[in-house]
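re the bet — no i am not wrong, look at it urself. input seq straight from the record:
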Amino acid sequence: MVGIDGGLGTDALFASEAATLGGVAGGTDLDGSDFDGGDFSSAGLNPLDAARSLFWYDVFTWYSLVIRLSARRVLSLNHRTDCGNTASFRSSYHSSSKPMKMIPLANGDALPSVGLGFWKIDRSRTADVTLEAARIGYRHWDCAADYGNEAEVGEGIARVLGDRVCSRDEMWITSKLWNTYHRPSHVAQACRRSLKDLRVDSLDLYLVHFPIALAYVPFEVRYPAGWFFDPEATPPKMIPDPVPIAETWGAMERLVEQGLVRHIGISNFGVSLVRDLLSYCRIRPSVLQIESHPYLVQPKLLRYCQSERLAVTAFSPLGAPSYIPLGMATDQDSVLNDSVIVAIASELGRSPAQIVLRWGVQRGTAVIPKSSSREHLIENLQLFDFELSDAHMQAIQALDRNQRFNDPGVFCEKAFGCFYPIYE
């Protein structure tokens, strides 16, 4: 659920504007310069005339302030009332930033096109990162039970709300159903655990994390469950559980009907699985989340989703960097080092990461880069005051290698002793 002005309420807007416009005697003038009442004697005014002039200056300035802010409050309230979640979303991280692009959903709601991904963010820093990101202007949080830090995200969200950085209605919170909870009897249980950890009453979006069902692991045995059924076994293995996606999806639909989630969606699904799901679902998925970056463009999948009014979120939008520490990629695999990206960044005076993220947003996807660095958090939001040309977009798309870093058909066998392809 998102609002306008990056979560600044109208009272905060009044205070902010008043601080800016409070340029009466002894304050700061409207152009930002210091103003101390002026040297009226040099203008030939006696002290009484000077006092009268200063008085009417004060009256005029504060009258202008009231008029401007009253109009702004009315516009703000009208925007919230008339536009709902399709309202223009402005990040507060930079006063000159342009409105964030929103990704329209089929029911008229809208998803902020830039979010913060929490995969691999250290638990000890997660709450602080959440609060810092909210202050910078983030309102879209991408979480998952499997990331192992939802409780810390929840702590951060509580601090965001406690500090009145923004309201709950101005946030978009996503979580994901893990593989071990695909049985219909476990879906609501898993969702409620995420709600408890995140300290919210409902989710904006709940995704099926993978089209992979694994044997159930009770919370009291291990949470999050991970991939192995029993990490202490010799050898430890993941154990598939043949649960039809249709059964899992039926339980996901009931979450919507129970008011636990507003939207449901899918992650790591290909065209065939999406098409099959759309053939029988009662509640259509709102979002598909997939790995996508200039080395994995997936143009056919994106085009198909757009034809079905299914919004797409790109995870790992910067490609290799998240996978290098895991030994799943090398520096040579990083699109940020690609000469095409570096040249465009130099031409536009932007960082390579901003070029890649802007490409993702400009092609119509939401992007959820991960970072714990304040500098990078700010940089990753500064995407809306420039555009890539058609030539830039085509040059970046031409980098496509169909190079997938997050592929269960590869890592499940290497790391978890089970060959489990899903994309072929």
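see?? Confidence is low (pLDDT under 50) at residues 3-96. told u. also The beta strands are 102-104, 110-112, 116-117, 140-142, 172-177, 203-208, 261-267, 287-291, 311-315, 366-367. so pay up
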